[in-house]
Design brief:
Elements lengths: L16 E5 L6 E6 L5 E4 L14 H19 L5 H8 L3 H31 L2
Antiparallel strand pairs: 1-2, 2-3
Helix pairs in contact: 1-3, 2-3
Length: 124
């Protein structure tokens, strides 16, 4: 590369250098060199307006308790709030709330599953 006078172009070490294709998916990658001459290469993250969505820890607990309740239904063993509290290492009251929330979650899942099944049968 040369500048307008024909002299070799000088590039700042702080500027990223856009290189060729990164792989078979056709995404470009960026190579960066810092002033201390450390180089890194990475695929730039796609910019979106949305913030990353992380799983809600309480929702994860509810889903876990729901799986325990489902296992209990299959084996004929009922799960108590106290047992759930012990497994989750939370207070007994919180264990009771998680059981109630998990029951509501399972009801909604079954309701949604039933609607999906009815739609698929009705559209056949």
């Amino acid at each position: 590369m040369t500048d307008a006078d024909g002299a070799p172009a000088v590039r700042s070490l702080e500027q990223p250098v856009l290189a060729a294709l990164a792989g078979t998916d056709g995404r470009d990658w960026v190579a960066e060199v810092t002033a201390s001459r450390e180089a890194t290469a990475r695929v730039p993250q796609e910019e979106t307006d949305e913030e990353p969505v992380e799983a809600d820890p309480i929702q994860r607990e509810i889903e876990l308790v729901a799986s325990w309740l489902t296992e209990g239904e299959e084996t004929g063993k009922r799960r108590s709030g106290a047992e759930v509290a012990r497994r989750l290492e939370v207070s007994p009251k919180t264990g009771q709330r998680r059981v109630l929330d998990a029951q509501k979650y399972l009801e909604e899942q079954r309701r949604q599953h039933g609607r999906t099944h009815l739609r698929s049968v009705g559209s056949s």
